[in-house]
Amino acid sequence: MKLAIIGTGYVGLTSGACFADMGNNVICVDKDHRKIKMLMNGEIPIFEPGLDSKVHRNVAENRLSFATDLEDAVKESQIIFIAVGTPPEEDGSADLSHVLEAAKEIATHINDYKIIVDKSTVPIGTADRVKATIQSVLDQRGVDYSFDVVSNPEFLKEGAAIDDFMKPDRIIIGSDSEKAAQIMHTLYAPFCRTYDRVIHMGVRSAEMTKYAANALLATKISFINEISRLCEAYGADVEEVRNGIGSDSRIGYKFIYPGVGYGGSCFPKDVKALIHMASEVDFDCRILKAVEEVNKDQKELLVNKVKAHFGEDLRGKTFAVWGLSFKPQTDDMREAPSIVIINELSKAGAKIQAFDPVAMDEAKRIFEDLEGLTLCSSEYEATQNANALILITEWKQFRYPNFERIKSQLKEPVIFDGRNQYDPMTVRKLGFTYYAIGRP
Question: What residues form DSSP beta bridges with 115?
Answer without folding.
Answer: 79, 148
